[in-house]
Design goal:
alpha+beta; about 20% strand; about 25% helix
């Protein structure tokens, strides 16, 4: 019984990732991020990086990225000798991670009060 339940959880997790990926942000989405949004593992945001679903935050390298020189794997901001094993492939970020990611995004145009480089004057 326990084994079949585990298999069902993995299958349901995989199906929900595919289903909810359409509901979550896409690479071209320009609206604000929030901790209530869900992201699939390795979801990329320009200027922010890759979402590590088990760690609920963004990092500069993909989840379990392998560096052949050091022979280590990158996961959750750390390097390890073995890849991280987790059934979590979709999650919502922490409030702090969502706020930090929103401030670092380069895929949105931010407007402000203008800049001195666009200032026009009638005085020469």
């Amino acid at each position: 019984m326990k084994r079949s339940r585990s298999i069902r959880l993995v299958l349901i997790g995989g199906l929900s990732a595919g289903t909810l990926a359409g509901c979550g942000p896409s690479a071209n989405r320009t609206s604000s991020l929030s901790a209530s949004d869900v992201y699939t593992n390795n979801h990329y945001l320009p200027g922010v990086g890759y979402y590590h679903a088990p760690f609920r935050a963004w990092y500069p390298l993909p989840y379990n990225h392998y560096d052949p020189r050091s022979q280590h794997y990158f996961q959750g901001g750390q390097w390890a000798a073995t890849p991280h094993a987790s059934i979590t492939n979709i999650s919502d970020p922490t409030a702090a991670a969502a706020q930090k990611a929103q401030s670092q995004r380069t895929d949105i145009r931010r407007s402000g009060f203008g800049s001195t480089s666009r200032h026009h004057s009638i005085h020469s």
